[in-house]
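quick one, two chains, predict together pls
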Amino acid sequence: MGKIQLNQVTKSFGDVEVIPPLDLTIENGEFVVFVGPSGCGKSTLLRLIAGLEDVSGGHIMIDDVDATTIVPAKRGLAMVFQSYALYPHMSVRKNIAFPLRMAGMDKAEQDRRVSQAADVLNLTDYLDRRPGQLSGGQRQRVAIGRAIVREPAAFLFDEPLSNLDAALRVGMRLEISELHKRLETTMIYVTHDQVEAMTMADKIVVLQAGRIEQVGSPLELYQRPRNTFVAGFIGSPKMNLITGPEAKKHDATTIGIRPEHIEVSQTEGDWQGTVGVSEHLGSDTFLHVQTDASPDPLTVRTTGELSLRYGDKVHLSPRVEHLHRFDAKGLRIE
Amino acid sequence: MARAVTPQRKALNTLIAWTIGLVIFFPIFWIFVLSFKTEGNAILPPLEVLTSPWTLESYGVVQERSDYFKHFGNSVIIAFGSTILGLIVAVPAAWAMAFVPSRSTKNILMWMLSTKMLPAVGVLYPIYLVFIQLGLLDSRLGLTIVLMLINLPIIVWMLYTYFREIPGEILEAARMDGATLREEVLYVLTPMAIPGMASTVLLNVILAWNEAFWTLNLTASKAAPLTAFIASYSSPEGLFYAKLSAASVMAIAPILIMGWFSQKQLVRGLTFGAVK
C-alpha cells in the first residue's frame, strides 16, 4: 500500500512561508511528478513527506495513518537523492543491504534481496566495487537498488537524473518508468524538467511559490491548462501567449496557442510576419516568427522539410479549435 | 600558464630551504650530540665537542637518578587520556554544530577559539584553587581533565571542519534507511571522518605531550610527565648540559618518532578542508 494524503500542510523557514496550506492526495500505485521552476517548493514538499523536514502545520497521512510526527525511518518510504548519497566507504553490496541491516534482517534474506535487486538493475558484476569506482548511471542504479530492497510503501525521487548526461537521462527515465510498471508501487518524483514530468507521470502536480497550480494527467495539463503559468510551463517549446488586441478579438485578456497549432502559409493567413531564427531538429523545424500580433516572436512548429529562410515573409493562422483563452487573472476561460 | 623556473633559480630555492630547515633543526641536533658527551666535554667549544669521544654515560645517570619510565607512563596516560576524553566530548558537539547548526553556532565556535587567546597564567590561580579543593593536585586524572579542556577548542574546530565536508544528504539517506542517530554516527559519519579524526587525535596527542605550563604547575612528583622530568634537570646550581640533553632526547624521542611516521596523515588531515 502507499496512499499519501497531505491535509493543510504548511512549511515556514523562520518568517518565510515556503508552502502555504496545501492539500493533495496521492493514490496507491500512482506515479506522481512534482514539477515547477527552481525554488517553487517541490523539493521541500518531498522532504516533508519523507520526514526530513518537520511540517509547520497540517497533517501527513500515509495509508490513513497520521505520519506527521513519525521519524523518517518509520514511515516506510524510500528516497533516491539527487547526489545519489551513497555511502562511499561501503561496497555496492553493503550500500544496498544497509537499510536491511538497519532493520535487523537476517543475513540470508539480506543476501537474497540484494542479489535480486542487483539482478533487476544490472549491478551483479559491480557488487564488490565501491561507489567511487562506478559511473554516474551505475551510482544512480545503486541508489535505486538501496531503495527497492526495502519494499517501501512509496518511493521518493528528488531530481534523480539531473546529474546525468542527456543520453543517460533518457535511458534512466525509461528504466524508472519500467520499474514502476513492474513494482506498481507509489512513486513521487520531483523534477524541474517538464519533459521528464510529461513522459513519466500518471499525475503531474505543477507547483509555483509553494502553491499547487494544477493537478492532472500529462495530457489534461497539456490540453487544458488551468492558468497562464501552467500553459507556459508545460510543453516544449512553450505555448505562445498573446495579449492585447488579438486576445480581445477572442474575448480574453490572454490567448495561448501551441507551436504545433499554427498553420504556416506563404500566401495568406491571419497574422503577417517575418521569419527569424529557425531551429532544425530533422523531424521538426521550429520557426521564430516576428508578427504584428505580439511584440514577442511566436514559435511555430513545422515539418522538417519546409524550407524557409531568415527574413522570409510568412502568414500564420492559429487553429481556433486549439486556442486557449485566459482572463485578467490568468485563469482559463472555458 | 606555468611559470618558467630556471635551474639556477631552483638550485637557489633549494639551498635557501635547506638552510632554513637546518637552522631550525640545529638546536635539536645539538641536544642530540651533547647527550652523548661527558659533562666536561659538553662545555667545550663546538668543534672540540664534535671530535671528543662519544659515550652513553649521561643516559645511564639520568635513568638512575630519576625514574624515566614512570614519567613516560604519566605522559602516555595524560596525552592519550586527554585526547580520548576530548573526542568523547567533541564528536557530539562537532556533529551538532556541523549538521544542526543554530543561529549561535558561529558565535560558540568563535568563543571557544577565543579561550585559546587567553594567557594560560590568567586562569592558573582559580584552577589551582579548584584543584586544591577537589584534591586533584599532582594527580593524573586532574591533569588529563585540564589538558582535555585546554585542547578541546582545537578538537571541536578540527572535527567540525571535517564533518562539514561530509554531504548532509548522505546522513539523510542513512536516516531514511532506518539508522538511528547512534547508528548514523557509528556506521556512516565516523568511517567517513576517519582521516580527519586520525589527524585530530595525532595533533592533540602531540600538543598534550608537549604541554609544559600546566604539567609543571599542577604536578610535583606523582603525576609528573616527561616535561617535568626535563625541567628537573635545569637546576639553579648550574646547568649540566649533557644530562639535560640526555633527558630532553629521552622525552622528545617518542613523540618525534610518532610524528615522523604519521606526518603524511597529519599534513593530509590538516589540509583536508583547504584542498579538495
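The interface with chain A takes residues 167, 169-170, 172-180, 183, 187-188, 191-192 of chain B (CB under 8 Å).
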